Amino acid sequence: LPAYKRMGGGAKLFLGTQENNVDLIFFKAKDDKFSIPFDTSLTVTPAENQVLGIGTKQKIGKMVSFEGDFAYSMYTDNLFQDVTRIEGFTYVNQIYAYVPAAHLTKQ
Questions:
Q1: Smallest Cα–Cα separation from 29: which of 9, 12, 45?
Q2: Burial of residue 76 (number of CB atoms within 10 Å: 0-12, 13-18, 19+)
Q3: Do 71 and 105 meet the contact criterion of CB atoms below 8 Å apart?
Q4: Which three-class secondary structure state does DSSP give residue 107?
Q5: What helix, strand, coil percent values describe the chain, rounded to 5?
């Protein structure tokens, strides 16, 4: 089975102390849709994934603390499809190229 060349990377920004903090996470991975011949790509399509996340830990008193995480994944399973602009969300169009095959998930 052919496989696309995949490139990816991410970053995490940690703000605060060990007891009270917030961290921001960004990750992106994308297949190079031209890394295999088009005629062999009929069974395997190039994909892309972007993840945005936020986490926090807050100490409330001596014996109580709160921890939480939230992540949002924008996964596209076929980069050969045309890009669609999202009306009314121009800031999203600047960071993410939405295609109809995209899957948006929250955790």
A1: 9
A2: buried
A3: no
A4: coil
A5: 10, 50, 40
The two structure tokens encoding residue 98 = 């939405």
Which one, of 47, 7, 42, 49, lies nearest residue 27 by Cα? 49
How many angstroms separate the CA atoms of 93 and 78, rounded?
A: 18
The pLDDT tens digits of the residues spanning 3-41 come to: 889 999 999 999 999 999 999 999 999 999 888 877 765
Residue with tokens 């001596």: 62
pTM over the 0.90 mark: no
The 8-class DSSP code of residue 2 comes to -
**18: CB partners within 8 A, 6+ apart:** 57
Q: Where are the alpha helices (DSSP H) in the chain?
A: 90-95
